[in-house]
Design brief:
Strand order of the largest sheet: 3-2-1-4-5-7-6
Shape: globular
Strand content: 15-25%
Number of helices: 9
CATH topology of one domain: Rossmann fold
Number of strands: 7
Helix content: 25-40%
Distance between the termini: 47 Å
């Protein structure tokens, strides 16, 4: 096993996620293709290209313990190069995953990597969220909405309200000092009647800087 995949296996285990040989092979191929494509199009920043396992794979997997039910229907809002949706799909194969991305080149990569890794139950949707929410097609179709994009909580919450079934989870990744953003998100009237807030600190040394997972459960 190459050192990166050994690190991934050990780091995932520390998060409560066990990865078998087939899953590690998929992650290794994902890493290889990501580097190959990144030399031509901007999928990830160059400063994180040497830290794909920690900054992208393991960071994505920190959400794994919160994904439910086992066969959850999940939408990744602003999927980019596939984070966090694709690492979670590899680790939790029963997930039914929709990757939502607007950039054509990134969509091409997502479709390519899905075929290459032979991942069933993955659908890539190229569109803007402002267009999607005007239609009824995707309203309350998902158990989990997740995003590692740079959207603020006040922007994410209306999308969670649209995409999620009652009881569904909106999950996002933030820096530890997120109190002002949470305050802004819940300052709107009736926000607390739509979502219940949960927070978890992630302090794994493998991830570099501390992280906070924000989980909002849709109550109606």
């Amino acid at each position: 096993m190459n050192p990166d995949m050994l690190l991934l296996q050990q780091g995932a285990r520390a998060l409560g996620v066990e990865l078998d040989g087939t899953q590690l092979d998929r992650f290794a191929l994902y890493q290889k293709e990501l580097l190959r494509w990144n030399a031509k199009i901007n999928l990830i920043s160059k400063k994180t290209a040497d830290e794909i396992v920690t900054r992208h794979f393991l960071d994505s997997l920190t959400a794994a313990p919160h994904i439910r039910p086992e066969n959850a229907r999940m939408v990744d809002i602003g999927a980019g190069a596939g984070f966090p949706g694709l690492p979670l799909k590899i680790a939790l194969p029963s997930i039914q995953l929709c990757l939502l991305e607007t950039n054509r080149k990134k969509v091409s990569f997502l479709k390519h990597i899905q075929r290459l890794l032979n991942l069933d139950g993955v659908f890539t949707l190229q569109d803007r969220t402002e267009n999607i929410v005007r239609r009824e097609q995707w309203r309350e179709k998902f158990d989990v909405a997740i995003s590692r994009a740079s959207l603020k909580l006040p922007e994410l919450m209306p999308l969670g309200q649209y995409f999620l079934v009652p009881g569904g989870l909106l999950i996002t990744f933030k820096s530890p000092d997120v109190s002002s953003e949470v305050e802004a998100a819940f300052s709107k009237e009736n926000s607390s009647n739509i979502f219940q807030l949960y927070q978890e600190d992630i302090n794994s040394p493998l991830l570099g800087s501390p992280r906070k997972i924000i989980i909002l459960q849709k109550v109606k």
